[in-house]
Amino acid sequence: MKLSYQHTVWACNFGFISQAVVNNLAPLLFVVFKEQFGLTDEQLGRLILMNFGTQIVADILATRYVDRIGQRICAVAAHLFCACGLILMGVLPFALPNPYLGLCVAAVLYAMGGGIIEVMVSPIVEALPGEHKEKAMSMVHSFYCWGQAAVVLISTLLLWRFSQGMWRLLPIGWALIPLANSVAFARVPLMPATPESERTKIGTLLKSKAFFIAILMMVASGSAELSMSQWSSLFAEQALGVNKVLGDLLGPCAFALCMAFTRMMYGLHGEKVAVDRALALSAALCIVCYLTAVLSTIPFLALIGCALCGVSVGLMWPGTVSATARRFPLGGTAMFGLLAISGDIGCSVGPWLTGVVSDAMQSSAWGASLMAQLSLSAEQLGLKAGLLVAAVFPVLLLVCALIRARQNRV
User: Within 13 Å and on the Cβ side, how many CA atoms surround 216?
Assistant: First the structure.
């Protein structure tokens, strides 16, 4: 059977699903890791930092070498990295004397794959024939959200049905998706890369004020999205007192579904929306959602804040990427790589900072005083404080979106 560019789009869709698996499976197991291996919040946050820190390294390498090695070889290798890392996530913690070391090794491997996928999929989609690139980009990015929702829903229900002691089988099962998609990318048609002589030079990009604003927006977008999505499961269970199944379904699962809905709607009707205005409104809503989740004394209302945060962050990443691609149409893989690096810096720093603040608040004298005044446990106060600090990132995005909207009017 001769494969078409529609098959290429579906391979890209499953590429984002593969990335969703490697980014969102481990946080669902944070409670298990704390109980089974005795990890602290800072160690859990360090796992997230290691994941996205490795993705940054992968982004840098991909930015430099993908066009030289070839898109197809790199896409296949990326999915194999993801599959190997996921399989080892279920094996190494029990094969090594230090379980945390096993989790770290697995995270580095699957993060290498996730980082390369992130750099490659957007330019592949952008290069395909067709109009309304912003819509196409948002639609393909929505599959990251559908993948995230599927990971949360299926994993949570399996853990509930078969007990948390069976968690090691989850990553091995999820590894089948990137494994199968590696075969797909070996066969689907790909558009030729932009010739090097025609690409916008990296130096030219870095000297542009518009591109610098885009970099800041990607950092803020990654931080705003991942700080909530990575910690919402633990936040719901320990800070809000909700049981794990309900907390996962109303927290990270609802977050992912709301984010998917936003991206899908923009993918269908995006030509009617001014992206800069939409990004500013998204940032404002995100601030409200963070404050609602942290400050509300009603658990259900706080969970609504977590879920609706998915609506607010849904357009941030793909909207910034697509608007920047429109501003620099010959940026090539290097431009997408720089944007991915910036986004992954945010994805690393935001969740890690949340964990650091949480641990610091729990162990400080000021934190002990606040616990007594607010009648909160150490875990409740720590996680609320961590997410409150993370609210600075949507504030940064709002400022950048307003600056860029003003620049575009001039």
Answer: 18
